[in-house]
Amino acid sequence: MSAIDIAIICIYCLTLPFIAFALSGRQDSVSTYVGGGHNLPWWVICLSLVATETSTLTIISIPGIAYGSGMVFVGLAVGYVIGRTLVALLFLPRYFSGQVSSVYQYLGHRFGQAMERSVSATFLVMRVLAEGIRLFAGMLPVAAILASMHFPLPQWVIMLVIVGLTLFYTMFGGLRAVVWSDAIQLAVYVAGTAACVGLLYHHATDMQIHALRHSSRFHLFHKSPHFFLDPYTPCAAMIGGAVMAMASHGTDQLMVQRVLAARNLTDARKALIGSGFMVGCLFAMLSLVGMLLWARNDEKTLAAMGLQTSDALFPAFIVHDLPQGLAGLLIAGLLSATMGSLSATLNSMTSATLLDFVTPCRVLARRIGLSALAFARLVTMLWAAVLVLAALVFAHSHGPAVVFGLSVASCSYGAMLGAFVFAMFSRHARTREVLPAFVMTVVTVCGTMMFWRPYGTTIAFTWLVPLGVIVMFMYGLGLRIIGKIWQ
């Protein structure tokens, strides 16, 4: 690794926390700490949403997928835009009219505290599992790249450094620091990706560009007979992707927290819908990297190039083919993607803990003699420790555990979306029906993901959320019918 690359990485890691802290302003209350004062510009929230839902794995994986399958992730983004538009039209007016800070407070107003805390606790558990996996897995390509560039660092050292830097500005800057840092981090890895696209296109021959233009890699969808197994067919991408986006951006505190920090409903809608288009553009840029690498390598297979997995494609390009400076920028971009998702997770878990478990938190804060804001920062620190422990546990896991960790959010999304649909659109729904249906749905979908193997493979991740919604309705309506029979 050159001195220029090391300097870029160090400057980025050392300056970002202080810039984010400076932009956060004064944190004088828990409301400001977890809600950002509800006056953030819509465009910053839009950038933060995109940075939150992308990670190091996103940046590493999409070019490898595009190398073999083309722009299928852009097709998935079409479903994302549809889903976010529906959330903006149907869900956000109810959230803003109810003046909620945690999205699960809406369920509490409709079904009571038991429902609110049950769904919030599910969110916290699922987020620990998913982010623990993502945190550790995000360190793997960074550690491999640094080792290949003769600057080896143990994975746990990289993890602790990133968690420490992220915890600094998240603890002391609150949501405002998280959102502003997300915007900066997104700009870093978008700039690095754009530079890679430009470099690859500039060095490609006319014959390679011609082969790429006349290939099938610009198709957005797969034509596959396996309807429920391929996530990139038109139905799976648009319908499954739309329902998944409705769940993630309409019921997950990780995303909704940012939208609720907007000044008004109009700004919230612009941020949410705009983030869908921005994600599509980011997916397109990352896909172009993979497609241009396919053309540059004269259509060779990954195996022919000595690569065992598609995720090894982009790191190999960073190590062997990028000029000095640009390699450092890309590594900084990978680190920023991990820091962005981590800071967002820490703040959203803190907000869910403080807002959905108000009474226990107040009692505990009084007993240990801390102010509300100091206690909020302590909660953030404790969740950071839990995430590090989860990441270290999953470091010793193999394939099935990793797959479970990456898919775990989708297992709860269907039940969450079903609960919110019952709350918003069913006047007759009652807690005694919705709460048991929620619990049974989470268990059913988790079991389906782990044990159902049609044709020897798992169901496509895009269908897990629609499956959860359907199962939630079946359980809820079934319990209502049983209740009427027993009356």
TrEMBL record:
Entry annotated with the keyword Ion transport: yes
Domain of life: Bacteria
Family per similarity comment: Belongs to the sodium:solute symporter (SSF) (TC 2.A.21) family.
GO biological process per UniProt: sodium ion transport
InterPro entries attached to this UniProt entry: Na/Glc_symporter_sf, Na/solute_symporter, Sodium:Solute_Symporter_SSF
One of the record's GO molecular function terms: symporter activity
Pfam families associated with the record: SSF (PF00474)
PANTHER family: INTEGRAL MEMBRANE TRANSPORT PROTEIN, SODIUM-COUPLED MONOCARBOXYLATE TRANSPORTER
Protein name in UniProt: Sodium:proline symporter
High-level lineage: Bacteria, Pseudomonadati, Pseudomonadota, Alphaproteobacteria, Acetobacterales
Keyword Transmembrane helix in record: yes
Location of the protein in the cell: Cell membrane
PROSITE patterns: NA_SOLUT_SYMP_3
GO CC, one annotated term: plasma membrane
